[in-house]
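Section handout 9: paired folding examples.
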Amino acid sequence: MILPRLVGNGRRHEMRDNNHARQAIEPVYHRLRSRTQTLAVDVMMVASGEACGRSAWGSQLPTVQAYWGPLGPDDSGIEFVSAVIPELGSCTPSMAYWYASTPGVIVKPGGLVCIPITVTRLSR
């Protein structure tokens, strides 16, 4: 399995692969402040430990979306890591996507899907 290039500020953790321990770095993701990604939403993400999403306009697929990599030095938004791997094959060079069918995604009532996260930076 090919994973995207890992970008700074990742969190090291142990992974088991064929009974051999190895070091891995979880990729860092971010969401920029916007009309829908407000400071209040960021604070809810910190409190809940989840990043969530719904279907985009014109789509029937609820999706968690985030940009790859850390926030830029002047960006406002939230930066996080997750042990849940994005849906490989549907990501773009700039965006990661998690769908209801992605292993580790939590499906909630009302068309909401979520992934567990650890926030590494909140920028106002």
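Moving on to protein 2 of 2.
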Amino acid sequence: MYRSRPVSLGLVGLFLWSSACTKWVPLEPPYPQWLEEYGKLQITNERGVPVVFREPQLKGDSVWGTVVTSHWEHGDLKHSERVAAIPVESVQKIEKRGSDAATTITLWVGVGLLAGLIGAAGMSGGLGN
């Protein structure tokens, strides 16, 4: 199946842009009741530093989970995992990933406009037909 370059670029753009349709959404206390229901949470400590915990668990008086960090090493992006904990009394905010309605609506309006422009260009012979 043949696709024109603009359509292929549009599909790649749609995929990349659609991944940006989520944001961190604050959760309300009490945290221990639902903490383990989420696979990934962003927890902000008392200094205001947010850290993303994978598979968070409440153990004793601390939240434990896997923290993934990334860094560049000799031109390659390296990832490392470590188990980390934060005392519950140090938690300032907990957030989960949620959908961002404004970004999603903007995405679909933009896709509609792009499709209209591609269709109009194709009908006028502007796509190299």
